[in-house]
Amino acid sequence: MIAKKILFQMEMENLFHFDGELPILGSPHRHRPGVARASRGAAREPHIMDETPQSDTPVDALLQRITEAYDMLPRQLKRIASYIDEHRANVMMDRTSDIAERCGVHPSAVVRFAQRFGFSGFSDLQAVFRDAYTGQNPAGQSYRQRIRSLIDDRRGALSVPAVAHQFIDASRAGLDELAAGLDDAQFDAAVSMLEQADNIYVIGVRRSFPVASYIVYALQHTARRVHLVSGLGGMYREQIRSVGRGDVVVAISFAPYGKETQYCLRAARHNHANTLVITDSRLSPLVREASAHLLVKEGSAFAFRSLTSTICLCQALFIALAYRLELNVEEVKDTGGYDD
């Protein structure tokens, strides 16, 4: 088994350095010896993990409570809940007045929000985030403070290389936050769904479209039936029409959440397909009825959000799926007359 895993790792390295035609992993109709394919809708034995899943942190527990109470919150408190979920790394640094201004509410509403969840005041709620982030990614936190000052105050002029470094720092901060906040249980559920899928449909629009294209490219290495819902010619409805039970729809969308993506998810649920949502907030309307969801917070600089963390998460998803399937890489030697 150890030798097999080492061989798998070597093959994966070849996969991402191979410049020719797409290598093919396994076959959709060929299964591992002695392992029966799970029937549609059938319960599947839990996958044995090499490590014990990490328990929820106080921040995770608090955010889960906020998520569960979100629909019952007054409108002003919903704004604060969304801000905290989307800017959790900044909460420990923000003043009550800062959050109130960004949410368009009175500062007393921020205090009421904290009290709603059992804190005597907002500073006590901040302490939960401060304790969680102490010692984690100090460079990223310093970046957030610096860039916010630059954007808000418009002080000084940056050189072109300095702009590049600021954006690289933002991407690095996003990766650190992805590593710290990855939900192991949801990630495992996502891999299991892809493993059992008959067909995989992938949808992402505008800034999410490159990510959707990459997922399709990667999953085609598994020789599964993978479909990019590109909407070419405005044909989202036609491209998602065939989705059904036993299929998985992978949707990548960030606020304000594309209407096309939301339509495809509704179609998937209507036809009893599973859904995997990759998004930026557990309060996203896409998450509530998803079969599994993965959250990713991108770093941003100068009003532009990176895609670094999202692409990294998708690569990790594919590698985990290939590892779960114990697939062998079979490089296709015939490039069809193309060199790359």
Secondary-structure map:
Blueprint: H1 2-17, E1 24-25, H2 58-69, H3 75-86, H4 88-91, H5 96-103, H6 107-116, H7 122-133, H8 138-153, H9 160-181, H10 184-196, E2 199-204, H11 209-219, E3 225-229, H12 236-240, E4 248-252, H13 259-270, E5 274-279, E6 292-295, E7 300-301, E8 304-305, H14 308-325, E9 329-330
Parallel strand pairs: 2-3, 2-4, 4-5, 5-6
Antiparallel strand pairs: 1-9, 7-8
Q: Quick one: overall form?
A: globular
What value does the Rg take, in angstroms?
22 Å
Q: Name the CATH architecture of the largest domain.
A: 3-Layer(aba) Sandwich
Helix content: 40-55%
Q: Kindly, what is the distance between the CA atoms of the first and last residues, rounded to a whole number of angstroms?
A: 34 Å
For the largest beta sheet, what order do the strands appear in spatially?
3-2-4-5-6
Largest sheet: 5 strands, parallel
The CATH C-level name of the largest domain is: Alpha Beta
Structural class: alpha/beta
Please report the total strand number as a whole number. Answer: 9
Proportion of strand residues: 5-15%
- And the CATH topology of the largest domain? Rossmann fold
Compute the average pLDDT.
73
What's the tally of helices?
Answer: 14
Order of helices and strands: HEHHHHHHHHHEHEHEHEEEEHE
CATH level 4 superfamily of the largest domain = Glucose-6-phosphate isomerase like protein, domain 1
Poorly predicted segments:
2-8, 10-55, 134-143
